[in-house]
Amino acid sequence: MSIFVFDIETIPDVESGRRLLGLDNEPDDVVLEAMLAQAKEATGTTFVKYHLHKIVAISAVLRLGDQVKVWSLGTEQSSEAELIQRFFAGIDKYLPTLVSWNGTGFDLPVLHYRALYHGIPAARYWDTGEQDNSFKYNNYLNRYHMRHLDLMDTLAAYQPKAYARLDDIAKMLGFPGKMGIDGSEVLAYYQRGELKTIRDYCDTDVLNTYLVYLRFQLMRGQLSPTDYENEIILTKTLLHDSEEYHLQAFLEAWLEKE
Q: Does the model's pTM come out above 0.90?
């Protein structure tokens, strides 16, 4: 069994906004301002509707065999379509258990809309038993199946009033929590051309999610205390051996909390 923990970072999709708002001849900054103004008028915030998000980063932790890996899909030059294609290709290849924090509430709906936009096939992901009968009883789309585990939703017993922030839960458990930037700052960093910072931030989010997942598996009895400690050591070794500054910083922040 492979475990694939994922997180996405997004910005408003100006091209779609231009089409929907009928601003064909307006520059990007004017379209963006109009999109944010429309969102604020409708909801009181500048958070645009899910179908108007453009994915700029997807990060993952893959636990497979005796190895664990964390990385951002593609490169800084990859198109949105390539990032999404890589995401669903990973599902086709490994058939992993997907793990997220609020993936049902945000990440997956956005991935659905953007895969639709780019015409990206994802047959295994969408299978609910038509191709593989076992997927009828455990698939990626059913909220109460375990092929996709949304930790925020599950830990809250599917009660929105009980939802918690990943940053709070991670820190409560002694993990680093959010590092560097916040999701609300992604657009500003993207506009300054600082995509590397966004990708690094996304990496640390999936690491926090993965560590919460390990504790969840300990609580469920799926990991013994010894198994859990071995998984923690494996993760720390990954970070220690990495040449990436943001991963070393994550380990340092983690050790400081112990």
A: yes
| Pairwise CA distance, residues 186 & 8, whole Å | 11
**98 neighbors 62 (Cβ within 8 angstroms):** no
Closest CA to 232 of 153, 175, 165: 175
Three-state DSSP state, 70: strand
Nearest to 148 by CA among 157, 140, 137: 140
CATH of 3-257, one of 3.30.420.10, 1.10.10.350, 1.10.10.10, 1.10.510.40: 3.30.420.10
Beta pairing, strands 3-12 & 53-64:
antiparallel
pLDDT digits (tens, 9 = 90+) for 187-212: 999 999 999 999 999 999 999 999 99
User: Domain locations in the chain?
Assistant: 3-257
Report d(CA 103, CA 64) in Å as an integer. 21
Does residue 58 sit in helix, strand or coil? strand
d(CA 101, CA 147): 14
Q: Which two tokens stand for residue 129?
A: 């038993």
The interaxial angle of helices 14-21 and 28-43, nearest 10 deg, is 70
